[in-house]
Amino acid sequence: MNLDDFTKLNPKDIGNWPIIPKVLALCGLFVLILFAGYWFDWQNQLADLDAAKEKESQLRETFISKKKQVVNLDTYRRQLKDLEQAFGALIKQLPNKAEMDALLTDINQAGLGRGLEFELFRPANNEILSEFYAERPISIRVTGNYHDLGAFASDVSRLPRIVTLNEINITPSGQTLTMSAVAKTYRYLDENELAAQKAAQRKSAKEAKK
């Protein structure tokens, strides 16, 4: 068949068409049905299928993550217990409010025990509050020889409570040396102080929202 034969076909009498035009017409109709099905229905279903596959992947990852947590639950509990014990040990190194005066005495005695002469020992009037502890700076100035000053610094570092020496400055003073420093002591906040601090934070947050 040539092109002229196709132009002579009667669309109202498809049943009498030759076999080749019939096959071509059926193929064209099949392609048209497929396209119409995809356009009006299948493309939405495919999009839903892709979304379902992505959700399945996310759920699978979540399941694997939760499963690992369950498998390692005992390990996490032991780690938490270890952290609580370590935190408790650190807290024990912080004196409470009633023990601060004794700590100040310990620092003073550490210097006197090394034969140092205190020219200045002035605890700050105000404490610097943190989340669960308070920091109190103490300005000190002591005079003595090099070895005694070093021994004093070592003694302070070995106190049962946490004390740090900061802003250290050593200058010659005749036959001796003078060391100026800021010793910082720390104490933990009691329950009343923690409650007051949280109340102040909530109040500040409310005022900030206004």
TrEMBL record:
<dbReference type="InterPro" id="IPR014717">
    <property type="entry name" value="Transl_elong_EF1B/ribsomal_bS6"/>
</dbReference>
<feature type="transmembrane region" description="Helical">
    <location>
        <begin position="20"/>
        <end position="40"/>
    </location>
</feature>
<keyword id="KW-0812">Transmembrane</keyword>
<dbReference type="GO" id="GO:0043683">
    <property type="term" value="P:type IV pilus assembly"/>
</dbReference>
<keyword id="KW-0175">Coiled coil</keyword>
<dbReference type="Pfam" id="PF04350">
    <property type="entry name" value="PilO"/>
</dbReference>
<dbReference type="GO" id="GO:0043107">
    <property type="term" value="P:type IV pilus-dependent motility"/>
</dbReference>
<dbReference type="InterPro" id="IPR007445">
    <property type="entry name" value="PilO"/>
</dbReference>
<protein>
    <submittedName>
        <fullName>Pilus assembly protein PilO</fullName>
    </submittedName>
</protein>
<feature type="coiled-coil region">
    <location>
        <begin position="66"/>
        <end position="93"/>
    </location>
</feature>
<keyword id="KW-1133">Transmembrane helix</keyword>
<keyword id="KW-0472">Membrane</keyword>
